[in-house]
Amino acid sequence: MEPHFTSETTAEDVAAVFATEIVTKNVLITGTSINGLGFESARVIAKHANLVIITGYNEERLKLSQDALQKEFPSANIRHLILDLSSMASVRKAAAEVNAYAEPIHVLINNAAAPLGKFKITSDGLERQIAIDHVGLFLFTKLLVPKLLASATPAYTPRVVVVASNAHRAAPAIDFSTLFQPDEKTFDTINVYGQAKSANILAMGELARRAQGKLNAYALHPRVIYTNTVHHPEMLPVLQQAGVLDQNGNPTPLLQWRTIPQGAAPIVIAAFDPRLNDRSGAYLEDCQIATETIAPHTSDPARAETLWKMTEAIIEEEFTV
After folding, report:
1. How far is CA 19 from the centre of its chain?
2. Which of 57, 41, 58, 54 is nearest to 91 (CA)?
3. Of 273, 256, 55, whose CA–CA distance to 161 is shortest?
4. Which range marks the domain in which residue 150 is found?
5. How far apart are CA 85 and CA 181, in angstroms?
6. pLDDT above 80: residue 123
7. Does residue 157 lie in a domain region?
8. Which family is this sequence assigned to (predicted)?
9. Which residues pair with 284 in a beta bridge?
10. With contact defined as beta carbons under 8 Å apart, do 27 and 53 qualify?
11. Which CATH number characterizes residue 156's domain?
């Protein structure tokens, strides 16, 4: 019987169903702090996978995640990698480390994202949220393509997964004339978040098109999840002002909240469900394909190509598959 997943499905449920798909795979997951979606994804995948690589920009927190995973699964092969997506130099250093591994990478899960918050400029002169959520992700993926393609066989196509959001629907369309020209006067953290998530979806659609079957790319909405990021000192007041959290930092009924295990479920589906093999470029929501729900400004191939070329100019490298 074909498995049927719903909004109530957990990542553990999905990993159990696809254990035979996971068992020989090497998986890299960005953004894996404890009490987050990346950590939960790593946890359920580590039970079965050949290798799980977890990343983060903070050595101490990353070590806590690795220790927690090894404690639960002593025989699991867990490797950690320092990766600061806000810095292109850090991205290049981390990618070089991965490319020096003996093993290929079967699945790249781009989960890390910047917290909502104050206007900040990175060392590369980019607005922080766009730098982390799109540019750093784009560059990291580009640099790991050879490692991903090395895992391909006649029976297996490597995958790239990005955790996006249905917040892209509420945000205005990406203004390409200002996307990479930070301006504090016009900065709105919620709008920038939505546009960054639009960029995630556009980029995965374009990657799927350009890859021509060499690798598969997917984007997804994990639903509204109460993760560790919610209490980031910059993000908490933003969410409170929006009425999403109360004065004590607890969820309000304004949104329909899901658990971390439920939020990680579509990530594991996108990474391993064999029924997606011929659906590269798909967008998942509530653990189902929901590509038809993508906002028009985020599903336009012409806009996807424009974004791709502009990002190539920013990283000063062509991204070819």
Report:
1. 21
2. 57
3. 273
4. 11-228+259-314
5. 18
6. yes
7. yes
8. Belongs to the short-chain dehydrogenases/reductases (SDR) family.
9. 220, 289
10. yes
11. 3.40.50.720
pLDDT at 199 over 80: yes
Write the pLDDT tens digit of every residue in 19-66.
Answer: 999 999 999 999 999 999 999 999 999 999 999 999 999 999 999 999
By CB neighbour count within 10 A (0-12 exposed, 13-18 middle, 19+ buried), where does 244 fall?
middle
Determine phi and psi for 148, rounding to 5 degrees: -70, -50
Given a cut of 90, is residue 234 above it in pLDDT? no
Q: How many domains does the chain have?
A: 1
Classify residue 243: in a domain, yes or no. Answer: no
The conformational region for residue 98 under phi > 0 = left, psi -120 to 50 = alpha, else beta, is alpha
Instruction: Read off the amino acid at residue 114.
Output: A
In the chain, the amino acid numbered 267 is I
**Domain for residue 253, yes or no?**
no
Matching residue, tokens 């029976």: 155
Q: Is the pTM for the entire model greater than 0.85?
A: yes
Helices vs. strands in the chain: H and E counts, helices first: 11, 10
CB 73 within 8 A of CB 39: no
Strand partners, 153: 156
**1: in domain:** no
Q: Which of 102, 73, 70 is nearest to 15 (CA)?
A: 73
